[in-house]
Specification:
The protein is built from eleven helices and 13 strands. It has helices at about 15-20, 35-50, 100-110, 120-125, 135-140, 155-160, 195-210, 210-225, 275-290, 295-300, 370-390, and strands at about 20-25, 60-65, 70-75, 90-95, 245, 255, 275, 305, 315-320, 325-330, 330-340, 345-350, 355-360. The strands form three sheets. A nine-stranded antiparallel sheet has the order 1-3-2-13-12-11-10-9-8, sandwiched between helices. A two-stranded antiparallel ribbon has the order 4-7. The protein has a two-stranded antiparallel sheet with strand order 5-6. The radius of gyration is 20 Å and the shape is globular.
C-alpha cells in the first residue's frame, strides 16, 4: 500500500552508495570458471544493476536452493550508514507474502476438518455484514470474494496518516468497510484485496478458539522450523534487520529509512509478518511443495484462475488458493509476492518443493510507484527462475 514519502528521516548516504558492496556467499575456485560460477557472476551483475537503477534498492538478496545445495547472491548493503552487507538471517517485513501464511493455516485446518473450503462467512463469521455472508473460504483465498479492501478505505487511510504508529485492533480492520456492499458477485471475477486474508484469519480463529498468532506457531512455524518469523503488533523490527528505504527515482533526494515507519497491526494477516530470507526459503519449499497439506487439498489449492499477485511476479501469473503460478520462459514455479514501504518480496518454488527462490529488495517497488523498475525487476526475477530450473 503506497504511502506518502516521509520527510522526517534523512541519512548521510552519498558516500556509502558510492562504495556499495556486491558479494556472494559462494565463490568460484581459481582458474577457469565453471558454468555455475559464470552464471552466478551474471546473476550478481543483474542484482548490482537493480541497486544502481533509478529508485533501486540499497540492498537485495536472493537465495536459490536445489535440494540441500544453497546459493546466496546479494548486492548493496543492509544499512546505508554502516555499510553492513545483507545476510540471510536478517529480519525484514515480508509484506503480502504473509498471505501465503494465512493460506497455510487455513488449508491445514481444512485437512484436519474444522474448516471447509466451501464454508461461508455467514456460517463462520455471522457478525460480519449480511451482504457478505455467501462468500466462501475458497473465494477469500483466491481473491474472488468481492470484499472491499479495507486498506483503501478513506477512514483507514486518515487514521494511519494521522499516526503512522497507530495501534489498530487487527480483528476489527474489516469494520472500515463494513458498510459497503460486495464489489461483485462472489466467484465471478478476480480482484486482489487485503480484506480477504483478514477474513481467512478470523475464520481460523472462529473454528479453533485460538488466536491467529498461536495458529501460525502451531501449524506453520514449528513444522517448518521457522525460528526467525513472527507476527508483531508494533512497528519495531527485531535485530538484526535489513533496513528498508524509500528511494526517490530522481536525485538529489536521498533514500530515507522507513523500516519502522508503520506498525504491523494495520495489516495483520494480510501483510504484517516479519521473517528472514532463510526462514522464507524454508517456508516456500514446504508450502509450495505441498509438505503441509494432503494431496487432495493440494489439488484444490492449485485450481488456477486468471489473476496476478501484487506486485506481479515473473512471467504469466495465475491465482490459486493463497498461492500463485508463475509461468516463465523456462518453466513453472509457485509462490507469492509482496510490497510495503521499504520492502519488496518474491518467494517461489517448484511444485515439488525441491528448488526454491527467495528474492528480497530493501525498497518498495510496484506498478503504481515505480512501473519501469517493476518491469526490470520482473525480468531479473525470471532470469533467476531460469537459473534455478536449469539442469
Amino acid at each position: 500500500m503506497p504511502l506518502p514519502r516521509p520527510t522526517h528521516l534523512r541519512l548521510p548516504v552519498g558516500a556509502v552508495l558510492a562504495g556499495a558492496c556486491v558479494a556472494a556467499l559462494v565463490s568460484a575456485p581459481a582458474g577457469a570458471e565453471s558454468p555455475s560460477s559464470t552464471t552466478d557472476r551474471a546473476l550478481r551483475s543483474q542484482l548490482e544493476q537493480l541497486v544502481r537503477a533509478p529508485g533501486g534498492p540499497p540492498g537485495v538478496i536472493a537465495v536459490l536452493q536445489r535440494g540441500e545445495s544453497r546459493r546466496i547472491l546479494r548486492a548493496g548493503v543492509a544499512d546505508l550508514e554502516t555499510g553492513r552487507p545483507v545476510e540471510a538471517t536478517d529480519h525484514m517485513r515480508i509484506a503480502s507474502t504473509a498471505k501465503a501464511f494465512s493460506g497455510a493455516v487455513a488449508l491445514r485446518l481444512v485437512d484436519r476438518g474444522p474448516l471447509g473450503l466451501d464454508d461461508t462467512i455467514g456460517r463462520r463469521l455471522p457478525a460480519l455484514p449480511r451482504a457478505w455472508h455467501a462468500v466462501t473460504l475458497r473465494e477469500l483465498l483466491t481473491h474472488t470474494s468481492g470484499l472491499p479492501d479495507f486498506s483503501r478505505s478513506p477512514d483507514f487511510i486518515r487514521v494511519l496518516t494521522a499516526d503512522l504508529h497507530h495501534r489498530f485492533d487487527s480483528r476489527r480492520l474489516l469494520d472500515f468497510v463494513a458498510g459497503e456492499p460486495l464489489l461483485f458477485r462472489p466467484g465471478s471475477r478476480y480482484q486482489y484485496s487485503n480484506s480477504d486474508n483478514i477474513a481467512v484469519a478470523l475464520m481460523a480463529e472462529a473454528v479453533t478458539g485460538k488466536r491467529y498468532e498461536e495458529l501460525l506457531r502451531q501449524l506453520v512455524y514449528r513444522p517448518l522450523g521457522l525460528r526467525g518469523t513472527s507476527l508483531p503488533q508494533g512497528f519495531e523490527l527485531p535485530e538484526p534487520y535489513m533496513r528498508g528505504y524509500d528511494v526517490p527515482v530522481r536525485p538529489p533526494a536521498a533514500p530515507e529509512d522507513v523500516s519502522e515507519l508503520i506498525g504491523a497491526s494495520g495489516v495483520w494477516a494480510s501483510g504484517g509478518i516479519v521473517s528472514t530470507p532463510r526462514d522464507m526459503t524454508r517456508f516456500v519449499r514446504g508450502y509450495a511443495g505441498g509438505a503441509l497439506i494432503s494431496r487432495a487439498t493440494l489439488r484444490e489449492q492449485r485450481r488456477w484462475v486468471d489473476g496476478a499477485s501484487e506486485p506481479a511476479g515473473p512471467g504469466r501469473n495465475e491465482a490459486g488458493a493463497a498461492i500463485f503460478r508463475y509461468t516463465t520462459r523456462c518453466g513453472v514455479v509457485l509462490g507469492h509476492t509482496g510490497n510495503t514501504p521499504g520492502y519488496t518480496q518474491l518467494i517461489a518454488a517448484t511444485p515439488d518443493g525441491e528448488r526454491s527462490l527467495t528474492f528480497s529488495l530493501t525498497t518498495q517497488v510496484n506498478e503504481a510507484t515505480k512501473p519501469q523498475l517493476l518491469e526490470k525487476l520482473r525480468e531479473v526475477e525470471e532470469n533467476f527462475v531460469c537459473a534455478l530450473l536449469r539442469k
